[in-house]
Amino acid sequence: MIHKEGKNYHFFFATPNSVARIQSLSEPFYNFPKSKIPELPSLHSEPILIPKFLYSLHWNRTRFPSVSIDTFDYNHPKPETGEIQIGGMIHQESIHLTKTKRTKYGQNKYLSLRDIVNPNFSEEEVNEKIEMLYFDKKSKNFLFRLVRILYSGTPEEEYKIVSNLFTHESEFAKFLSNSMFTAEIIPLIHGPFVQSFISSFDERIVKFELPKLSKPVREVLQKSVSKNKFQMIQNSPALEPKEGEGLIETMETEVYRRFSRNIYFEEGNMFTYKVSSDEENPDSVRTNFENADKFRFWRSDPYIEFYGCSKTKLFFQTKEWIDVLRFDWFLSRKDFESYEFHRLPPYHLIEIPFFTTGLAIVGGGITKERRGFEFTLQWFDY
Predict the structure, then answer these.
(1) CA torsion sign, 11 to 15 to 17 to 22?
(2) How many angstroms separate the CA atoms of 211 and 221, rounded?
(3) Averaged pLDDT of the chain
């Protein structure tokens, strides 16, 4: 099962061989600024959790509207599922933590040729198509490299290679995440994409922008509609579109929405912590923990626990290998902050900021064994 609906998150257990195709829309249930809510790609080949309070989804012919967060009443001691942890594992105490440097993972979007080219084409036929595109020489060389990657291995191998490109070849990465999402890539796209797009577009705007299209894009557009439809476009009065609503901009946006994939890649370092008794260790850090009696931590599964708090930080301990871990900090009903971690080992401490005036934290994760879990952290002043 690739999808699981939780209390506050949708879980998608995607892999390069089992891609999740999701239609999503930034539709926060609360009055959060939309500028803080990133647009999600349609294709996912890595496990992902999507907050139900930030997005509405279409998945498997079912619509899931955005909803409010689900937190248990503090006075309800025994929820139907999951378990309650009162207070942190560490209370008012000064202890030594050893810093461990770990790889930090960034994420970006890219366009995989696997999703757009005709699956019946040979490598040579795809290269011939690329030769006709209106890309500069350097961009075409990047595309030729992508073709070699596409035909040389499995989806998992492609993902690993592209991830390494994002880590080690910044110029290539920029092309993958930006320059590929242009109208000039459209002649490579196999299937009814252009036909379905043009059929719902204002003919007058298409007429206005026809002269701006490159020859390959114009030819694809013409072949994608009937002769009568194209004649109607040519006979229509030209209408200049409003800014951002033109044919080219809208096509590029639609290519991004339909075909972009998430990619995770190594990007610098981060620190996790482990409890240490070796005060002489140069990586040892003395941390003063505060009393944590006022905290209540609910979790659906025992893959993470609330460890404790300092004046400015909250600490959580992993109990399993976790592929993706997300925290959503509700600062108010009008603002939030999100923190995401990837590929965490068991029995390590991670930290996030502690905002004493915040309302609550909801979160979730997916373990290495593809099991989804959720949690909430609440606190009260007595």
Answers:
(1) positive
(2) 12
(3) 89
pLDDT digits (tens, 9 = 90+) for 103-123: 888 888 888 899 999 999 999
Q: Quick check: 328 and 51 in contact, CB under 8 A?
A: yes
Query: For residues 173 and 179, what is the distance between their CA atoms, to the nearest angstrom?
Result: 10
Token pair for 237: 């009065």
Q: Round to whole Å and give the CA distance between 78 and 76.
A: 6
**């929820």: which residue's tokens?**
79
Confidence of residue 21 (pLDDT cuts 50, 70, 90): confident
Two structure tokens written together for 133: 């595109």
pTM of the model as a whole: 0.79
Q: Which residues contact 16 (CB under 8 A, 6 or more apart)?
A: 45, 154, 155, 156, 158, 159
Q: Is 201 exposed, middle or buried (0-12, 13-18, 19+ CB in 10 A)?
A: middle
Number of helices and strands in the chain (H, E)? 9, 20
- Average pLDDT of the residues in 287-310: 92
How many residues would you count in the chain?
382
> Cβ atoms within 10 A of the Cβ of 306, count?
24
Three-state SS for 88? coil
SS3 content of the chain, % helix, strand, coil (to 5): 30, 35, 35
CA geometry: angle at 311 spanning 307 and 313, to 5°?
50
CA distance 167 to 179: 18
Q: CA 182, CA 201: separation in Å to the nearest integer? A: 18
Residues 143 and 176 sit within 8 Å (Cβ to Cβ): no
